[in-house]
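haha ok so turns out i had the wrong file open the whole time. this is the CORRECT one, sorry everyone. sequence first:
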Amino acid sequence: MDFLNSKIEAATEARISRLNVVHINDQTLSLNREVYREARSEKDARAAEYSAVKRALGRDTIVVADGLNYIKGFRYQLYCEAKAVQTPSCVVHVGTHPEKCKEINHVLLANEDQDGGYPTEIFENLVFRYEEPNGMTRWDSPLFTVPYDDPTPPCEEIWNALIGTEAELKKVKPNQATVMVGNSHDQIRG
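then structure:
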């Protein structure tokens, strides 16, 4: 987030300097981690994240959907929403071995001063249901897998995937099924 904001602040191009960054996660949505205990409350939590992303999406906004986007169908929904408003998207996957995740979660649970981890039962269930992103699918592409302890993540490459370079603006073509065309009467007269 700091990298994105610093790129925007340093920009001299109007198309970049007008961008803003919106960060959406469980904390910004005031969701308790207990929502992942039951299917119904989890579904409502995903709907809240989806709605927040949909409201924030726009050509002048970089939306960081920093949540439990571990279900490929949910990532597909987010991809479709971004494509519908013709904004680029990418997936940044923090590659961490499940045992390391368990260790980190245990430390977070033990530290009452932090916004702790997930209760063990919920954590184990989330790990079991996790669907790793696949860069071969269009909704997970481009995919940036960054090891959790990587001191130099590919920030510039992520920026270029979302914004483009100074020489080439990143553009997204709409799906033909969503492009408005004249009514059938106009097409017949054509």
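The chain is about 45% helix and 10% strand.
again sry for the mixup
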